[in-house]
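Service request form, structural biology core

Requester: graduate student, group of Dr. S.
Request type: structure prediction, single chain
Budget code: on file
Notes: please return the result as structure tokens.

Sequence provided:
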Amino acid sequence: MLKWVKPSKVEVYSFLISMPFIDLGLQAILYGDRVIYDNPIWSISFPLIYVIGLLSWYSQVLYNAWIEKKFPSLAESGKRIITKCLVYVVVMSPSVLFIFFLYDRLHILGYSIKEGDLKMGLILGVVVNLIFVGLWEAIYIIKKYKESLADIELIEQMGTQQEFENLKNQVNPHFLFNCFNTLSSLISIDKKQAETFLDELSKVYRYLLRNNEDGISTLEKEVKFMHSYYRLLKTRYGDGLNLSIEIDKRYQPYLLPSLSLQLLVENAVKHNIVSKQQPLMLEIFTTAGNKLVVNNNLQKKQQKEKSTHIGLNNIRAKYKLMKQQGFQVVEGEKNFMVVLPLIWNDNKQEPYLNNL
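Core staff response, request fulfilled:
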């Protein structure tokens, strides 16, 4: 059983626009030239047909709502359109026939059915209703198409958020694995230095956990963390490692994926010789065009360590998910450089970016 349905604005406006023309057309069929000079037609017949038309129109609204509920998707548009066409047989045609037979039966204002009246009435009703019911269907299809696009966008956004979460979760185990390897080697060499390293590690890891929760942070925060991480590395490598940081203050509020600097420095230490005789020189600096550069002298280890490829791939993947271009890896004969695009922080980033 159909319940009360609130008509849409389009359905209401289509009735208000079309019904006066339908009413006037039916009056012309019923009374011919009398419409021009017979006042009772305007005071009695015109309102009567308007009320009948209102009931017929609302029947179409109910019918339309039932069909859209039965065949709601875009894939069912064919079934929905064909079924809606039956409205002219189920609702509109009986309404037109009812008007003519009612007027003839009651001889309203002297009317009697004449040959061709029913045909003319049905043609008028079908033409006008086809136009407006076609409009309803077109608007419905557009609405459903927009909803489907919104659903696709939401699914993609959810997938992006989940993918970014997975990338974030890669960082902590990767960091711990490398630190525990360092700690293990220190224990056998210098237990006191191992204790200092462990103390620094606990401080750095607390900072790491806090920063990695957001997935994206300001350059200022990343640089502060890098100072803490550098102290941890110095505990292990001493004079074998040197870091120079030169950041233009105007870039401090800019954004980049959390822990990017830590991953790049860790990557450089892992794949290069770090010793007092061959110190690893690291540089972090900003350049024009909203870019951050991490550069180190290239002195690859003869025996390469097994790489998980998490560091660079992790950062590259994050920039790709954020739809930010400009991430570059440049390897020369004497140096290895990574360019990170800095993201303008206007607090109006994409929804998924805010949740990272």
